[in-house]
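Much of what follows relies on a compact textual record of a protein's fold. An example makes this concrete, so a full record is given next.
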Amino acid sequence: MTEQPQPFRDPQLPFARRIDDLLQRLTLDERIAMLHQFAPAVDRLGIGAFRTGQEALHGVAWMGAATVFPQAVGLGATWNDDLVRRVGEAVGNEVRAKRAKDDRVGLNVWAPTVNLLRHPLWGRGEEGYAEDASLTSAIAVAYTRGLRGDHPHYWRTAPVLKHWLAHNNETDRDISSSSVRPRVLHEYDLRAFRDAVRAGAVAGVMPAYNLVNGRPNHVSPLLSQQLRRWTEQSLVVCSDAGAPSNLVDSEHYFDTHEEATAAALKAGVDSFTDHGQDSTVMTGRIRRALEQGHLDETDIDTAVRRLLELRYSLGEFDPGLDPYADTTVFDTAEHRALAQEAAEQAVVLLKNDGLLPLDPGAPGTIAVVGLLADACKLDWYSGTLIHRSTPLDGVRTRFGADRVTFAEGADLIRLKCAAGWLQIPDADAGTGTGQGAEGALDPALLAGRTDLPPLTCGDSPSELALVDWGNGVLTLRDPDGRYLSVAEDGYVRASADEPGGWIVQETFRWEKVEGHAGGHRLVHIGTGGYVSVAADGVKVAGVDEKDSGHAGVADAGPAATVFEIEVVERGEDAVARAASAADTVLVVVGNDPHINGRETEDRTTLDLPAHQERIWRAAHAANPRTVLAVTSAYPYALTDAAAALPALLWTAHGGQAAGTALARILSGDVSPAGRLPQTWYTSDAELPGLLDYDIIGSRQTYLYYEGTPLYPFGHGLSYSAFTYTGLTAERDGDRLRVSVTVTNSGVVAADEVAQFYVRALAPSVVRPLRQLVGHRRLHLSPGAGQRVEFAVPVTELGHWDVAHGRWTVEPGAYEVRAGASATDIRLTTVVTVDGEPSGPRPVLHHGLEAADYDEQLGTEIVDRTKTDGDAVTATAPGNELLFRGCDFVAGTRTVEVSAAGKGSVEITVDGRTTTVDIPATDGPYDYRGHETPLTASGVHDVQVTLRGTVRLARITFTGAAE
C-alpha cells in the first residue's frame, strides 16, 4: 500500500488546500520567520530556506557572469513587445540555470521597474521604460510574461514590479512626499502598474522609499484599495531594502518600530527586506507588535499565505512537476544573438543629413573618439560581462582595424606636490579581483582591492588620464587603464577596472587653494576626505580632517596635500588631431552609470558635461563629417550639436553587444528603428521642478507639454522611408477599432514603428494634447506594405472625473492620429463617442473633497490620517484651489469646513468671499468641523485659499431648504 503524502505535499490538491494544511502545521515563530526576506528552513517539515529578491532588470544581476542586455530604458526604446518578451524569457532561463548551480540565486525576481520617466533628471531613469503609461505597460507585460513562462500553474520566475508609487526622485527619496492629485494618480501613475498586474504575469510589487500625499508607500492604503482589486491572483508585496526601519528612523512617521512594522503588515507588506540577512531584528519587531496588540495572528497568516502561494507557484514543493526545474540554458548562442538584436533595435537615429550609413567598402579612415568610444559601461543592476563589445571594437571589426584610429579625449596630466611627483608604483597583477567579478547578494559590500601598493611621491611623474564627468566630478586613470580608488584602509591605489559600488570610491573633486597660485587639493568624494601624501603612501585624510564641504577652505589641516597640475595634453587636442587626419569621425559621448545620475543621485542639468562638449566641438571643427553617438541612460539638451552636426544617434548602454550593434547601424547592415521613450527638451528652462509630480498642472511629459522639444516622444529616423494610408477608426461595442496601412517606400528593408495617438477635440477639462493608445514595430521590405490594426478599449479615451469620483469617457469627438512620432503625424481621422456628460459637481449632495480640485497653485496634498484619506495644505501664501462647475442648485445656507491646524479657509463663490477661521487643533490629524453662513445658487466655480498651517480635508454645504 502506497503511503499518502502529507496534504501540503500532495500535488493532486489545489495550492490553496495545501497551503491551508501547511499553515496549521507551522508554529507561530516559524510563520513569523517567513516574513523576512531571508526565510530560514523548517527542517522538521523538510521545507528549505527561501529568499525574496533577485535583481534581473536587464539580465541576472549581482550573481556574477550573465548575459547582459541593454538597459531597461534601452529596451523601452525598441518599442518592440515581442523582442522584450524574448529577452524576459532568456533572463528567466538564466536565473533558473544559475539557481541550479547556486542556491543563493532567487527565483522571486525584482523586476521590472515601471516607474514612469516623468522627469529626465531622475537619477534612476535608466531603470524605467518610458514616460508614457501605455508604452511602459506594454513593455512591462512583455518582460514579465517572458520571466513568468507559459505554464498554467508553475512559474519560471516570479516578477515583482518596482517601485510603488509615484517615485521619480533620488533627492531626499526616503523623506520626500510626492503630491499626486487624483487625476494624475488614476490616469498616470497607477496605470503603469495596473495593466501589467491585470495581464497575469506579475507576482507582486515593491513599495518605493518615498511618501505619497504625506504617507509612506509602505503603509499605503492603495495596496488594498487599488493593487489587490485588479486581480484575483495572490500578490506578494516585498519591502524595499531598509524601508521598514525608515518609517521610524528617517521619516519619523511612527514612534516605535513595533507600530511601524504592524502598520506596514496591515497595509499589505508581506516580506520585510531589512537588516540584510539578519532576520532577528524584524522578526523581533513582529513578535513584540503581536504582544503589544498592534497585530493579531490573522495578519501574520495572511502575509504568510501569500508568500507560500508564491513558493508553490515556483515549484518548490513539486520539484518533479516543475517544468523549469532542469533549465540549463545559459550564455547560449541564441542569448548572445538576442542581446545583439536588442542592442541594435534600441539605437535611435536622431538626425541624419545624409552622412549615414557609412559604406564599409568605401576608401578612407574613421576616427573613433570620445570618452565612451572604447567603453562598455555597466550599471548598478547589471550582471558581470562574459562578452564585451565597445564602439571601437565594433567599428574595427566591421570596417577593418587598419581603417580605424582612436583618441579617447581624456586630459593627460601629472600631479606635483612638495614631496615630488605623484607616482604609481610598479606592481604585479595582484591577487584581488575587480568590482563585480564575483557574485554577491549585496554588491554594496564588495570592498576595494588592498593587494596592490598605494601611490607614492618621488622624482619620476606618472601620467594620469583625467576625465571630468560634469559638476566637477573627476576620475583619474593610470596608463594601464586602472582607476585610482580608495579601499577601506584609506590608501589610494590604481586598482579599479571601472568606477562602481554603492558608494563610488573612484571619483574626486578639485578644490582651489587660496593664496596658492595653481594649487589644488584633491577631495575624495566617496569619503569627503582630502588626499594626502604620507611616508607610507598616498591616502585619504581621517574623519576629523574631512572636506568641510566649502570650496576654497583656507585651512584644511596638515593632511591635505596641495598639488600642482601639469597638463601634458588636452583631450580635445588629441581628438582634433585624430579627426583632421580621418575621412569621417565618430564621437561617442554620454555618461558613466555610476556617476552623476544613478540610484541615490539625481542629475542637476540636461547639459552634456563640458569636457565632452569640448570634444565634439573640436572634432567637428577639424572635420565636418562628424557623427555624434550618445550612449547614455537619459536625455541631454544637445541643442547646439543638433544644429551643427550632420548626424546624431542615441542609445542607452547597450549591454554586451553594444559596440557591435552600433557598428552595424553605422554601416547600414541594420536600418535604425529605435524610438525615443521620453521627450528630449532643449534646455533646463523647459523642465518643471524635480518634485513637481502634477504633470497636468505643470504641463509635463509629451502628454501636456506645450513647447517645442528638441526631439519628441516616439522620435527616430530610418535609412528608408514609409508612407501611411487608409487610416480608419470605428466604434465596435466597447472597443475602438483603428487600422492603417504602412508601406516601405524606400529602397532598403527596414523596421518602422507605427504609433497611434488620440486626443479629445472639445474636452470639458484639461486633457492630453496627444496620448499613445497603440504601437507596433514591423519589418518591411522595399515596396512592401502591411495593414496594422488595433482594438483600443473605449475606456482609454477617458479620464478620472474628480467632480463625481469615477472614471468617465466624455461624449464627443476624438481625433485619432497615426504617425512616426508624437509630432510626426501622417494621418488623422475623427470618431464620435456617445455617452452621458459628466455635468456639474453635485456639491450639495457630495460636498468637496479638498484633493479633488481641478487646478491648484501653491498647495500640496498631505495625509488626512495615517491610514487613509487626503487633505490639502498651503506651501505658499498666494495659494488657490479651484473647483469648476459647482452646482448649488436652488441655494445654500451654510458651509462647513473640516480642517486641522490653525489659520483660516477663504471660500470665494460668485465673487463673494467667506472666511472660516480655524482655531488651533490638537495636532495635524485632529480634524474638526467649522460652520459659517454662505449663500450661493446655480453653477459657479469655487476658489479656496488656505492661511496658516491649515490642513483642509473637506468642504460641505447645507441647502437653503434643509
